[in-house]
TrEMBL record:
It comes from the Bacteria. Keywords: ATP-binding, Helicase, Hydrolase, Nucleotide-binding. It comes from Alkalihalobacterium chitinilyticum. This is Helicase. GO terms for molecular function: helicase activity.
């Protein structure tokens, strides 16, 4: 297991933007995408922006270990190291758009969910946090469970340590 960019990773190019928030939500409903309470709270918050213009982004999925954290790390450490390695945080709207494009995500077969841990098979979107409040969702993660696609929100305080095996999606920087 190497450190980015000399590691196993998954890259995707996705189309983002071009829909209003209501159109984006309707499209997710059309694909039977489920949301938890945190996901809905984040999605419908006025501070969650969506772009009227369609644009293309290249993303990279890797785990916390591939950022140089064999014992895990906090969100701040993960995001700082990713930036140091040349990756960007994603716009928050990447969560719903990636969920719509990644319909064949493998099913996670985890048993009892662990509180204070990312679920097995989930992929967290690395995005700027829009509210400092520890009770407000910090971002989205994707999960497929029992054949159902989810766009879920999560809460984590600044002390939360992510597992070295937790997966994150970052964006490649736009070329000038």
């Amino acid at each position: 297991m190497g450190i980015y960019p000399d590691c196993r990773m998954i890259t995707r190019t996705i189309e983002v933007g071009g829909l209003t928030k209501s159109q984006l939500y309707a499209k997710m409903q059309q694909y039977s995408i489920l949301m938890n309470e945190y996901g809905e709270r984040l999605f419908f918050d006025d501070r969650f922006p969506t772009s009227n213009t369609k644009y293309s982004l290249k993303t990279v999925e890797l785990n916390v270990r591939n950022l140089g954290f064999p014992d895990g790390a906090t969100t701040d450490h993960i995001f700082k190291k990713a930036r140091d390695l040349g990756l960007d945080l994603c716009p928050l709207e990447v969560g719903p758009y990636l969920r719509l494009e990644y319909l064949d995500q493998p099913d996670s077969h985890s048993g009892i969910p662990s509180q204070h841990q990312a679920p097995t098979g989930s992929i967290t979107i690395a995005a700027e946090v829009i509210a400092a409040d520890d009770e407000f969702p910090k971002g989205f993660y994707l999960r497929r469970m029992n054949g159902e696609l989810w766009l879920r929100g999560y809460v984590a305080d600044h002390l939360h340590v992510w597992s070295p095996d937790d997966h994150f999606i970052f964006c490649h920087p736009k070329k000038p």
